[in-house]
Write a structure and sequence with these properties.
single chain; mainly beta; Rieske Iron-sulfur Protein; three-stranded antiparallel β-sheet; binds FE2/S2 (inorganic) cluster
Length: 118
């Protein structure tokens, strides 16, 4: 597993991007919604894996309740990753395996594989 941060580093309704695979850009982001952390690949299903934030760590929408892709305005359910509004309704973000150890340190899966574009 690849270390990302301490769980306290992502507040409710906030997100953080990470580059755990040393690509030179954030390929992963973590969102806290209703107290729970989830990790997603930073790749919008609308346009062949386009990065989603309009600037570093800006993945939630203005209300902090949905994940937004700032390219064309898609909105995603932060629990399921499914697009619920915008140009790719019904498609989903790619979930990543996240683990939190007994000290609150957050880790993401060792490798990332692009899922089949739908
Ligand atoms: S690339 Fe994400 S909404 Fe178009």
């Amino acid at each position: 597993m690849k270390h990302l941060c301490h769980e306290a580093g992502v507040g409710e309704g906030r997100a953080r991007g990470f580059d755990p695979y040393d690509t030179g850009c954030d390929t992963v982001f973590v969102v806290r919604h209703d107290g729970r952390l989830r990790a997603w690949r930073n790749a919008c299903p609308h346009v062949a894996g386009a990065p989603m934030a309009w600037r570093r760590d800006e993945y939630p929408d203005a209300g902090g309740r949905l994940i937004a892709c700032h390219a064309h305005g898609a909105r995603f359910d932060p629990d399921t990753g499914r697009c619920i509004r915008g140009p790719c309704v019904g498609l989903s973000l790619q979930p990543l395996v996240l683990e939190i150890d007994g000290h609150g340190e957050v880790y993401v899966q060792e490798h990332i594989h692009a899922q089949q574009e739908e």
